[in-house]
């Protein structure tokens, strides 16, 4: 269950990271509200997950999911570059997440 909550926390991290782009410097009320809600949900879920998971592993996986998801959403939604080197780096992060999950 902790791993599932950690996955959800990482997904909400993607939500608030992408949401930052849509807040326009926190001047747009609806995107700002949704972004702040995503921030709170993400951190609360992380906090629950670390009750049973090692903090170093959980934090690294949380940020990894957020990083990979945000890069992919940036490519898909915002037209960020999808270069070979960026995609290779994303795959390295995914490998690191898998390694941490396997050794926890």
Describe the 3D structure.
The chain has four helices and no strands. By secondary structure, it is mainly α. The chain has helices at 2-23, 29-49, 55-78, 84-103. The protein has one domain (2-103). Helix 1 (2-23) runs antiparallel to helix 2 (29-49), helix 1 packs across helix 3 and helix 3 (55-78) runs antiparallel to helix 4. The longest helix has 24 residues, at 55-78. Keywords: Cell membrane, Membrane, Transmembrane, Transmembrane helix, Transport. It is a multi-pass membrane protein. Belongs to the drug/metabolite transporter (DMT) superfamily. Small multidrug resistance (SMR) (TC 2.A.7.1) family. Gdx/SugE subfamily. It holds the Pfam family Multi_Drug_Res.
Short overview:
It is found in: Cell membrane. The chain has 104 residues and is mainly alpha-helical.
Indicate the topology.
Blueprint: H1 2-23, H2 29-49, H3 55-78, H4 84-103
Helix pairs in contact: 1-2, 1-3, 3-4
Strand/helix succession = HHHH
Query: Share of helix among residues?
Result: over 70%
C-alpha geometry: flat
Major β-sheet, in short?
none
Q: What's the domain count?
A: 1
- Quaternary structure of the protein: single chain
Tally of individual helices: 4
User: What's the overall average pLDDT, rounded?
Assistant: 95
Give the structural class. Answer: mainly alpha
Low-confidence stretches: none
Termini separation comes to: 14 Å
| Rounded radius of gyration (Å) | 14 Å
Please count the beta strands (DSSP E, at least 2 residues each).
Answer: 0
Work out the strand percent.
Answer: under 5%
